[in-house]
Amino acid sequence: MQVVAELNDSRPFSRVLVANRGEIAVRIIRACRELGMDSVAVYSDPDRHAGHVRAADVAVRLGPAPASQSYLAANAIVEAALATGAQAIHPGYGFLAERASFAAAVESAGLTFVGPDSRTIAAIGDKLAGRRIARSVDVPVVPGTLEPAAVSRPEALAGIIAAAEEIGYPLLVKAAAGGGGRGMRRVGRSEDLAVALLAASEEAQSAFGDGSVYLEREIRPARHIEVQLLGDAAGRVVALGERDCSIQRRHQKLVEEAPAVGLSEAGRKDLHAMAVRIASAVGLTNAATAEFLYGPDGSFWFLEVNARIQVEHGVTELVSGLDIVHEQFWLAAGAPLSAGAISAAERAASPGGHAIEVRISLEDPARAFTPLAGRVGRFRMAAGPGVRVDTALEPGERVPPDYDPLVAKLMVHAADRPAAIDRLRRALDETEIDGVQTTLPFHRFVAASAAFRAGDLSTDFVETYWDGPMARRAAVHQALLAAGLAAFESIPTPALLADQPAGLGWPAAARAEAIDRWPR
Predict the structure, then answer these.
(1) Contact 228, 243 (CB under 8 A)
(2) If 0-12 CB within 10 Å is exposed, 13-18 middle and 19+ buried, where does residue 425 land?
(3) How confident is the model at residue 481, as a pLDDT?
(4) Per-residue pLDDT tens for 258-295?
(5) Rounded CA gap, 402 and 371, in Å?
(6) Of the candidates 61, 97, 99, 470, which lies 20 to 30 Å from 112 by C-alpha distance?
């Protein structure tokens, strides 16, 4: 790691390139401005007028829409950093954030990579390596294989089937590289294993450039709980607390909250200690997250380490009072863990307050959360006490189909979980997005759900409680009733009829307003 700023300087770097787009790029650019650093944005052709481009001090075009020719063009990004005088590159999440080769290219160019170094990413970016590391420090791992399945060797299939029988069905075929549910297949019987292995491997190769897959027991029902970690160059690693990310679709998160409901102080301490042991074993510097499954018997099972900032880092910031992106910059510049980070870690097992985040995406929750694109009409996000919104979107902007459909993260913070849920309901009521279909109806359902309020959480939550088509039919029915009532109440009397504007007719606006909560 190259230290490019004196530790007594007022800023970690003078100029930083942000190798990302959307809300996370704006989030990082804001942190740069707060720390007195210039920011450089990169963009593809569809993003030339995007929010992160407008927010930065300098912007550099990368190429056309396909990510492979723009946001995944590692050499072009490094060249843009050098050409603009940037001293560091922050990758955000996704795209190149966990590519050890990209981090190495940044380091080789004499720049600082704002995140774990290339060696650490290589050590824990491979899930199988992470599983082996966890086992070496006495952290329980989900039962499964520790070496990649020999998918390309037909003669090895019998051995893979035998390993699967030992693990037990149902099981998961999972990609050794990457995440987000890609390269993953659920297998309920041995007859389906061969096809699942090939399909998962091909998807992993396409998504991550690595077709390695392995087998893992499916623990179900289970909760998905992760621990936020920070580490410095002196070898000190701390846990800032945990987040519950159990409400998911297609193994991708929809709702996150901190702290995880139902854990005791002693349970939190044990969980945080396991995460710290794993991170310490690989010499973690900067920010990372250790992910676990929490079984119905109260057992924790290690899943993987994400060597980057997480989408949901904001809920930990709200509970801990720490700015994690600020910490990333100082750690990347060679500073030790701050007094604020150490203090937050000391309080992590007995946190004060509760925070919840919902990811608002252009997806149709009535049709299995199908990703969408389009031009946003009205875009009014909630505000008020205890509300935070991270977004790069403005009214009238078009959301391209080429990238993740996430458009905003709505977060709330309150004294306790019931109050946070009440605040979330209020904030969702204030939120208006028109012209495109979003996940808002689902989030309103969750906030009003008795199961959610009771803490009945698992990765099966959506499958168990959400019926998208039925919810949409109910919304349409209510809209028609509201429109009919509005029409009845607004029928003009004969004396006033002559004063009505031409073409008033049946007040369709009433129906439009009523159904606006579920855009068409």
Answers:
(1) yes
(2) middle
(3) 75
(4) 999 999 999 999 999 999 999 999 999 999 999 999 99
(5) 10
(6) 61
Per DSSP, the three-state class of 19 is coil
**pLDDT over threshold 70, residue 188:** yes
Pick the range with the lowest mean pLDDT from 51-55, 213-217, 280-284, 489-493: 489-493
Euclidean distance between CA atoms 236 and 314, whole angstroms: 23
- Please check the confidence at residue 111 and state whether its pLDDT lies above 60: yes
Q: Counting runs of H as helices and runs of E as strands, what totals does the chain give?
A: 19, 22
Q: How far apart, in whole angstroms, are the C-alpha atoms of residue 355 and residue 520?
A: 31
Residue 286's nearest CA partner among 305, 319, 309, 315 is 309
Q: What are the sequence ranges of the domains in the chain?
A: 15-114, 143-217, 223-468, 469-515
Domain 143-217 is found in CATH 1.10.10.60: no
pLDDT at 112 over 80: yes
> How do 237-249 and 252-258 pair as beta strands?
antiparallel
Q: Which residues contact 44 (CB under 8 A, 6 or more apart)?
A: 21, 61, 62, 63, 64, 65, 67, 69, 70, 71, 402
Nearest by Cα to 37 from 104, 99, 112, 95: 112
Q: CA separation (Å) from 333 to 87, 355, 511?
A: 10, 30, 56
Q: Whole-angstrom Cα distance, residue 222 to residue 220?
A: 5
Domain 223-468, CATH class in plain words: alpha beta
* Average pLDDT value for the chain: 91
Phi, then psi, of 254 in degrees rounded to 5 = -115, -35
SS3 assignment, position 11: coil
Q: Say what the pLDDT of residue 488 is.
A: 62
Q: What is the CATH number of domain 15-114?
A: 3.40.50.20
d(CA 20, CA 27): 11
- Indicate the pLDDT class of residue 209, thresholds 50, 70 and 90: confident
Is 9 a residue whose pLDDT tops 90?
A: no
Tokens at 463, concatenated = 């499958």
Amino acid identity of residue 411, one-letter, is M
Tokens 């509760």 sit at which residue?
Answer: 354
Q: What is the DSSP letter of 297?
A: T
Phi-psi domain of 122 (left: phi exceeds 0; alpha: psi -120 through 50; beta: other): alpha
Q: Which residues pair with 230 in a beta bridge?
A: 238, 287
**Greatest mean pLDDT among 21-30, 126-135, 486-495:** 21-30
User: What is the Cα–Cα distance from 288 to 510, expressed in whole angstroms?
Assistant: 49
**CA distances in angstroms from 150 to 188, 195, 399, listed in the order given:** 20, 14, 40
What pTM did the predictor assign?
0.90
Residue 150: both structure tokens together: 């020999």
Helices 324-332 and 22-34: crossing angle in degrees, nearest 10, is 70
Residue 127, pLDDT score: 87
pLDDT of 178 strictly over 90: no
Amino acid at 231: G
